[in-house]
Structures are given as structure tokens and as C-alpha cells.
Amino acid sequence: MTAVRTTAKVIVGFVALGVLAVMAVLVPIPGPTQLRTWAEGLGGVGVVAFFAAYAVFTAAPIPRTVFNLAAGLLFGEFVGVSVALASTVLSGLLGFLLARSLGRDAVLRQLHRKPVRLVNDRLAHGGALAVASLRLIPVIPFAPLSYLCGVSSLPLRPYLVGTAVGSFPGTVAVVVLGDALTGTTPPSLIVCYVTFALLGALGVLRATRSTEQKTVAVVEDSHSERSGPPGG
């Protein structure tokens, strides 16, 4: 029975691949320029719809990169960056408020544990700079960090400022890349934007490196305290 099911799944998989291959050949796929023209035809309605979809979907653990590329491709560099950054802040706000309303009590019950208290204090006292430094690290997913900040003691205003500042360099770089797919952005302008984004990211990371090193040291001290002195 197991062999039959496995064979059936393989057959279904090949059939699905075949259907997709046929669709790729028969169904016309619009190019970047056609997509830009289509988005321009939608006017403000298209911008608002994209803004709402970006904010809602990325509040869940859905990567922002696809939306940033789409923003540049559909709306160009200026409107694309504006919409993407505004949607990012709104998405961060939604995730923050959701986590604060649902999970804050559970964290409060764990504040007697030094590692938990340390992370909470790091965010609460680090403020916007702490959030910005974390937003600049590509391997940290956007939505989970929003949830983490929401359950901490971090106030809302510095969280939003840090989210906007920390997300700005990466957002600009990816949106400009999306705009470049249409072939309308001068290469020199792309280089300038990417350089600006990298310099901004390096600046904030350098400013917070010493603080992060202190955080690691405190965590190690907390583990040594919990282990206690060896028995005599």
C-alpha cells in the first residue's frame, strides 16, 4: 500500500510539472516594462492596494524581499521606496501590537530569569538604536523580531523609529534593484543607492557592536552564577 501511494505521488508530481511547463509556453508572461505600464494604469488604487497587501502579509512570517522588489518594479524608485518603507513600518506596528496584546503576560512571568530579563532590558533601554541594529541584520526575520519587541518592555515610539531607520538601507537597495529590472534606472544611480545603503548599515552596526559584546558578557556571567561554585 505504501509503495502504491508513493508511486501515485510521483505520478501526480510529474503531471503537475507537465501542466506548469505547458502553461509557461502557452500563457504569455508580461515583462517588467509591461508590468510597470499596468501598475501605472491602476493609478492611486494600485498603490493603496499594494500598500495594504504588503503591510498585512509581511506582518506574518512572509519575507519582505519579494514585496520590495515588486515595489521597485511596479512603481519606480521614489514611489516604490516610499510605499515599501511606509508598509514596513505599518507591518512592524501590526506585529508589535499583536504580540503585545497576546504574549506580554507570559514574558512578564519569566522576568525573574536573568537571560530573559537581559534581553528585555537590552531592548527597553537600547531603544531605537537597539531595534535599528537588529533590523539591519539580514538573517533576523522581520516579523519574529516585531513579535519579540512587542512582548518586551520596549515603548512603541522608539520601536517604530528603530524599525524605520534600520529597514531603510535594505529597503532602498532592493527597491532600486526591482526598478532596475525595467531598464529605466541609470547604473550609476544604482551604485549610489547601494553604496548609501551599505554605509548606513555599517554605521549603525559599528555603533552598536560594543553594546552587543557587553550583552554577551552578561549572559555568560549569568550562566556562571547559575552553575554556582564547585562543592568542597
Automatic annotation (TrEMBL):
Q: Where in or outside the cell is it found?
A: Cell membrane
Cellular component per GO, a single term: plasma membrane
Chain ranges of the VTT domain: 62-179
- Bilayer-crossing residues are 7-29, 41-62, 74-103, 123-147, 187-205
What are the coiled-coil residue ranges? none
For membrane topology, the record states: Multi-pass membrane protein
> Per its UniProt record, what InterPro entries does this chain match?
TMEM64, VTT_dom
Say if the entry is tagged with keyword Zinc. Answer: no
- Report keywords, A-Z: Cell membrane, Membrane, Transmembrane, Transmembrane helix
Question: What is the predominant subcellular site recorded for this chain?
Answer: membrane
- PANTHER family reported for this sequence: GOLGI APPARATUS MEMBRANE PROTEIN TVP38-RELATED
Q: Write out the similarity annotation.
A: Belongs to the TVP38/TMEM64 family.
Protein name as catalogued: TVP38/TMEM64 family membrane protein
Q: Which classification does the entry list for the species?
A: Bacteria, Bacillati, Actinomycetota, Actinomycetes, Pseudonocardiales
